Amino acid sequence: MITKNNIHLLFDFIKKQKKTKSLKISQKNNNFELSKFSYTDDIIINKDVIFNCKIDKSLKEICLIIIPLLFKHKKFFIAQLGQSLDGKIALFNGNSHYINSKKSILYLHSLRCICDGLLVGVNTIIKDNPFLTTRHIKGSSPVRMIIDPSLKLTNRLNIFKDGHKNIVFTQKVTNKKLKNTTIYQLPKKNFTRCLYKKIIELNFKYILVEGGATTISNFLEQDLLDIIQFIIAPIIIGSGIDSIKLKSISNLKYALRPKSSLYKLGDEMVASLEF
Ligand SMILES: NC(=O)c1ccc[n+]([C@@H]2O[C@H](COP(=O)([O-])OP(=O)(O)OC[C@H]3O[C@@H](n4cnc5c(N)ncnc54)[C@H](OP(=O)(O)O)[C@@H]3O)[C@@H](O)[C@H]2O)c1
């Protein structure tokens, strides 16, 4: 049975597969292996990938979204935005807990679990004071990376209290010390591209760009994302921070129209766009 306690092992197993067609995967205790036979067809990803194992109901929709991504990409920058139907990710006062349902939070933690790096902008850390760990399922937490051009972060924030590793990208020359943190100073010119290159140079392969709007929009504008996912709650907020802020365009032919897939996630929906 695939549960919150072993799903990370399934994701790791899939990451290691070179072949992505005609796969039948079975489970013995906590080990996953390739098998020749199909018995239960409990999860059918597509006609080529079949799992011969039972799965906890709450994780099935999550697997149907994540597994094809892991088969297709051996590395990626994936952005996620939890938003309302009218495209808001937080109120103007910064409140954003919670727009999405528990199931979507579980999905977000599954995304964290498949990633080795998690990138956010400094406003998200200061406004939300999050931990950004994989807590709702078993699995390792990605290294937290924070974009903080003028080094506003202080050791009082939660990310510096739990002993987990952080990386901060700044433009400021500094000798500031932040707990469990490596600080990289990067040039102001082409800053976003420099930090993208630095992350690759540091050998990270699966990066979750978790927000906020400014950070994700910068990556989108500079064509640095492989995938962007909108986790859409069926609520209308009416005013607040927009999920994406790009330069205005003069004609709809300039709108981004990447390949899209839509998935159900409980009462919510995931729109997954691949560039
Ligand atoms: N619903 C969700 O999925 C979700 C996820 C995450 C966050 N949020 C919400 O989003 C809000 C924060 O979003 P936000 O758009 O205000 O801020 P943000 O993206 O968290 O942080 C933006 C700041 O980070 C720095 N930064 C990020 N990318 C940069 C780049 N490429 N180049 C230079 N500097 C860069 C800048 O700092 P400086 O200003 O110091 O230069 C910028 O002002 C919070 O209220 C949070 O609750 C929602």
Structure report:
By secondary structure, the chain is an alpha/beta fold. The chain has two domains: 7-66, no CATH class; 75-274, 3-Layer(aba) Sandwich (Dihydrofolate Reductase, subunit A). It is 24% helix and 29% strand. Strands 10-9-8-7-11-5-12-15-14 form a nine-stranded mixed sheet, with helices on both faces. β14 (259-265) and β15 (268-274) form a beta hairpin. α2 runs parallel beside α3 (102-114). It is globular and about 60 Å long. The model has no long low-confidence stretch (mean pLDDT 93).
Basic shape:
globular
Which H/E pattern describes the elements?
HEEEEHEEHEHEEEHEHEEEE
Instruction: Report on the biggest sheet.
Output: 9 strands, mixed
Structure annotation, total helices:
6
What name does CATH use for the topology of the largest domain? Dihydrofolate Reductase, subunit A
Roughly how many Å apart are the termini?
34 Å
Lateral strand order in the biggest sheet? 10-9-8-7-11-5-12-15-14
Strand tally is 15
**Secondary structure category:** alpha/beta
What is the CATH C level class of the largest domain, in words?
Alpha Beta
Mean pLDDT: 93
Computed Rg: 19 Å
Helix content: 10-25%
Bound molecules: NADP nicotinamide-adenine-dinucleotide phosphate
Unreliable segments of 5+ consecutive residues: none
